[in-house]
Design brief:
alpha/beta, Rossmann fold, 2 domains, seven-stranded mixed sheet, 7 strands, globular
Length: 219
């Protein structure tokens, strides 16, 4: 079997698994863009992340399930800003582009209107090549985007939820975040696939001064 044939076979198998998945069916029935919404819902119930009027920045928001959930939780007095290179299926403030671009940073700043986010969330994952070194490097790049964004957009004492995968990049990220927050806990939602290496870190008590110093020393 050629490499292309193997890739197509894996895609067909993934599609069959996705179609039969109860969380996917539930998301479709409840009008959410993806099954990932139930991961955030479970984490929110455990850690009380969201409340009416909160301001949320969703990095790598596509297809939009997390943004949809946050929008319903924060209500009309809150704000959800969804950022991604791809279109996002949500009714919140949408910014399509690369978070590393100054134009996108300016758009986020304008949307916050002089304020800062109470919560930064990210369910981003790299396009998997199957080559461990390449995939680790790609994910480290995504995590670097989050790290640089924190002192710009997250308020003092704010919270963050980020998806990680077991491996070197996760270990390095957790070490980098430890001095920047008062508390960090591991979460593995029930709706995560049993064979997935993913887990989530929930951070609270953001320390912006230390974050700015960290960004300077790692730039």
């Amino acid at each position: 079997m050629t490499r292309t044939s193997k890739r197509r076979a894996k895609s067909r198998e993934w599609a069959r698994t996705q179609a039969a998945d109860p969380w996917t069916k539930r998301a479709r029935n409840e009008g959410y863009a993806s099954r990932a919404v139930y991961k955030l819902e479970e984490i929110d119930k455990q850690d009380r992340l969201l409340k009416t009027g909160a301001k949320v920045l969703d990095l790598g928001a596509a297809p939009g399930g997390w943004s949809q959930y946050c929008e319903r939780k924060v209500g009309e007095t809150g704000l959800v800003i969804a950022v991604d290179l791809l279109p996002v299926n949500a009714g919140c403030t949408l910014i399509q582009g690369d978070i590393r671009d100054q134009e996108v940073i300016d758009q986020i700043t304008a949307a916050l209107d002089g304020d800062l986010a109470d919560l930064v969330i990210s369910d981003m994952a790299p396009n998997i090549s199957g080559v461990v070194v390449t995939d680790e490097a790609r994910f480290e790049g995504l995590l670097d985007v989050i790290t640089v964004s924190l002192p710009i957009f997250l308020r003092p004492g704010g919270k963050m939820v980020v998806k990680l995968f077991e491996g070197r990049s996760a270990h390095g990220f957790r070490a980098a975040m430890k001095p920047l927050f008062d508390r960090g806990v591991v979460r593995k939602p029930k709706s995560s696939r049993s064979n997935s290496r993913e887990f989530y870190m929930v951070y609270s008590g953001f320390k912006p001064t230390k974050a700015k110093n960290h960004t300077k020393t790692t730039a």
